[in-house]
Design a protein that fits this description.
CATH class of the largest domain: Alpha Beta
CATH architecture of the largest domain: 3-Layer(aba) Sandwich
Number of helices: 8
Structural class: alpha+beta
Oligomer: single chain
Largest sheet: 9 strands, mixed
Shape: globular
Distance between the termini: 31 Å
Order of helices and strands: EEHEEEEEEEEHEHEHEEHEHEEEEHHE
CATH superfamily of the largest domain: QueA-like
Length: 346
């Protein structure tokens, strides 16, 4: 497979620069396995699910992970906290960094009262750093010194609104450098409607890092390696998935991060509870085991996220749906519209 197999033309004006209001006012492209795509509203989602279906959310919480500060020399430095290496808001993190001159091991970086020591230079812009605090003290320091890490295709500075809107309403576990954006469409009222219909829900946690979004280099995708991301599957979530599958109900992943968590935790014929770190690269040819349907946003051309969706729904079917979305002026990427992709009938 070639990277160019996952390309599609996208006018720049279709890249959403801000969220819609309210959250669930987004559009939803429904892509059945055996019929043409049809246009709907995200608020139509309850009617697309059956009583007993299980929605699996990623309850990670985005932190103000972008830090701009100074090196001891006074030179400007910027880092993005990508992955907590101790779980939660610990001291040690994998980070991306940039400065006018190389960032060296042992350097102490200052960010408005928050200090970070560079412990290791990993290469390709990645570092291991140790912060001078953890837990709630770190959360407070990031709230003061950090910025919401909007994706680079959102070509504006983050606003006060983004602190709320680039976060799901059910976000719980802090640690992500990017939002699980399929979940941004859900509101408390929509969750209540889903529950009233008999749709069940559970949550896993995957702290989203920039590795999910890093480009594939070269035209062959076979040698691409995903950067690791930490996940947790609670015992209750593993039991809920097992129960749904035992009843013949659908497991509906909300977003690609929930997909990667469930598929990474699949062992011995079931999703296993526990913690882990995944580098799973899902592309066409992969056999899904844990997921029956997918709610997802529209992803960048040539991205690993688009490859994951193509592996789930079939490359021709998915790219045809993307062309339909472009023709009908859907909004793309993090603050854009969504797609419902069932794998089989409920």
């Amino acid at each position: 497979m070639k990277l160019s197999d996952f390309d599609y033309p996208l006018p720049e004006e279709l890249i959403a620069q801000a969220p819609v209001t309210p959250r669930d006012a987004s559009r939803l492209l429904v892509v059945p396995p055996d019929a043409p795509p049809r246009h709907a509203a995200f608020t139509d989602l309850p009617g697309l699910l059956d009583a007993g279906d299980l929605l699996v959310f990623n309850d990670t919480r985005v932190i103000p992970a972008r830090l701009v500060g100074r090196k001891p020399s006074g030179g400007r430095v910027e880092i993005l906290l990508c992955e907590p290496l101790e779980g939660g808001l610990g001291r040690r993190w994998r980070a991306m960094g940039q400065a006018s001159k190389p960032i060296r091991e042992g350097t102490i970086l200052e960010f408005d009262g928050l200090a970070a020591r560079v412990d290791q230079v990993e290469g390709e812009g990645f570092y291991v750093v140790t912060l001078d605090r953890e837990g709630r003290d770190l959360e407070a320091a990031l709230g003061r010194a950090g910025r919401i890490p909007l994706p680079p295709y959102v070509r504006r500075a983050p606003s006060a609104e983004d602190a709320e809107r680039y976060q799901t309403v059910y976000a719980r576990a802090p640690g992500s450098a990017a939002a699980p954006t399929a979940g941004l469409h859900f509101t408390p009222a929509l969750l209540e409607r889903l529950a009233a219909r008999g749709v069940l829900r559970t949550a896993v946690t995957l702290h989203v890092g920039p590795g999910t979004f890093l480009p594939v280099r070269g035209d062959s995708i076979e040698g691409h390696r995903m950067h690791g991301e930490r996940y947790v599957v609670p015992a209750a979530a593993a039991a809920a998935v097992a129960d749904a599958r035992g009843r013949g109900a659908r497991v509906v992943a909300v977003g690609t991060t929930s997909v990667r968590t469930l598929e990474s935790a699949w062992r011995d014929g079931a999703v296993q509870a526990g913690e882990g770190r995944t580098e799973l690269f899902i592309r066409p040819g992969y056999r899904y085991r844990a997921v029956d349907a997918l709610v997802t946003n529209f992803h960048l051309p040539r991205s690993t996220l688009l490859m994951l969706v193509c592996a789930f729904g079939g490359t021709d079917r998915v790219l045809a749906a993307y062309r339909e979305a472009v023709a009908d002026r859907y909004r793309f990427f993090s603050y854009g519209d969504a797609m419902f992709l069932p794998q089989r009938a409920g």
